[in-house]
Amino acid sequence: MKFKDILVHIDNSQQCANRLELAIKLAREHEAHLTGLYIITHSPYESQSIRVKQDEAQAEAKFVQKTGEADISAEWVSADWARVGVGMEVVLNHYAHSKDLIIVGQTDPGVLPGDVPPDLPQRIVVGAGRPVLVVPYTGTFATVGKRAIVAWKAGRAAARAVNDALPFLLNAEEVSVLTIRDPDEQGSEERTDGGIRVNLERHAIRVKEAHIVMKNIPVANLLMNYAWENSCDLIVMGVYAQISRGKYDLGPVAKDFFDHMTLPVLMSH
After folding, report:
1. What is the tally of structural domains in the chain?
2. Which range of residues forms the domain containing residue 79?
3. Is 128 found in the same domain as 195?
4. Which end of the chain is less crowded, N or C, counting CB atoms within 10 A of the terminal residue's CB?
5. Average pLDDT of 101-121?
6. Which residues contact 107 (CB under 8 A, 6 or more apart)?
7. CA atoms within 13 A on the CB side of 111
8. In a domain, 140, yes or no
9. Where would I find the UspA domain in this sequence (predicted)?
């Protein structure tokens, strides 16, 4: 099982170069077609300026060059959000619905353009209906998915994430199913982890179980600490979200990851 159709969000940020490099690596590993989606942003009441056109041309040239050097199947798509009359996340999700994997970047709060929603990655995770690989805005990542963590909490979101991540997990050298328990919760190992471990082993996936008792440290920090200590290169997690006053309100673990992630995270909603 492989990802055969991958979409990567392209922009003019510095972090995009690392995101594109990672997308090309995954496209090569999975023998996938890679689509680079560039969304043109400007006021609905003004035409594209010379700068806007130059930015797009520069991004396209880099995409064509890098994918050509990698000799992968690729295509460039640009969409003008003012022309289609909807927000950036609607455009991105429209293209995402027909792809196997979506790759977006974590928001860098220090260099966020004024016309880009600060919660764009969150909106894509919630609205894409597909697995979304969120890449940190700092760091380079030689591998993704060779040593993976499944953040497991029995329920719909985690189950969906594990199934969406199978193309990664099937090729992993090791998969850790990590359960974080409340200090007052006793004897729950078999009830929470046994079923998913057996399921993954039936796919011939090498599984290691781990249990951490939650104290006064945020769950996201515990997961990232475990990843660091065990040289993991991917976290797989389900995302819980509910609509509050017309906006999606994410669970606290997902919120922390979007703010502080240190390695790529595959998210499903």
Report:
1. 2
2. 5-135
3. no
4. N
5. 83
6. 118, 119, 120, 121, 137, 258
7. 11
8. no
9. 3-135
* pLDDT in the model for residue 191: 47
Cα 155 from Cα 158, distance rounded (Å): 6
Residue type, 32: A
The more confidently predicted of residues 43 and 56 is 56
Residue 130 resides in a domain: yes
Domain assignment of residue 28, yes or no: yes
The verdict on 32 and 62 lying in the same domain is yes
Section 75-92 average pLDDT: 80
Residues 171 and 119 grouped into a single domain? no
pLDDT of residue 168: 97
We report the CATH number of the domain holding residue 201 as 3.40.50.620
Left, alpha or beta for 129 (phi > 0: left; psi -120 to 50: alpha)? left
Tokens (6 digits) for 230? 């065990």
How many other β-carbons are positioned within 10 Å of the β-carbon of residue 32? Answer: 22
Together in a domain, 195 and 263: yes
| pTM beyond cutoff 0.85 | yes
pLDDT at residue 185, rounded to an integer: 64
Mean pLDDT of 58-77: 96
Dist CA 36 CA 256 (whole Å): 28
Average per-residue pLDDT for the chain: 87
Rounded Cα gap, residues 248 and 242, in angstroms: 5
